[in-house]
Amino acid sequence: MEILVLFDSKGGHVYELAKAIAEGIKKVEGMQVRMRRVKETTPLEIIRSNEEWSKFYDFKMKEIPEAVLSDLDETDGLAMGCPTRYGNITPALGNFLESCGPLWVSGALVNKVAGVFGSSGTMHGGNETTLISMMFPLMHLGYVIVPMGYTHPGVMETDLGGTPYGPTSVSNKEKPGELISETEAGVARAFGKRLAEITKKLRG
To answer: Can you give the pTM of this predicted structure?
Structure first.
């Protein structure tokens, strides 16, 4: 069985969460991970004006395949993430979801399992509303939504990212040498494992 980890990431924070989620998924016997990025829609001149974005853009374009609809169709579950944009999903992720009409019409994604994750620049920058916004189109597509819940102590203890809706990061907090903290990574790994376990039960 396979779970698609689908993301939009600008400076690499969401990508680090995606990697931690993938680690958690792989802890469940028989589960595999397919890592994909959505097509970038930010104008290149904007990307190049930010050193962090520019560096990560070059990395992801080279190393991570771009998602196509068959990635959703061929996998048993989905972990989907993006940074917040004014409390909502990014245009790039929205653009990909907009293309899912054929899968919605055919019912190809009904009763598959999905969860969401994200990142904001500040503690109150919109992480939770972004996660909930991501859930809406997944519900329309027929996915069974799996939240993080309070299934990991990091959700209760963190003063950074990590919510009951899904793993998150707060990028402006001091994390020497890291894009996400170990607490944030721990919540993400636990979420990946939880998502994989539930996918295996429902789809196995």
So the answer is: 0.95
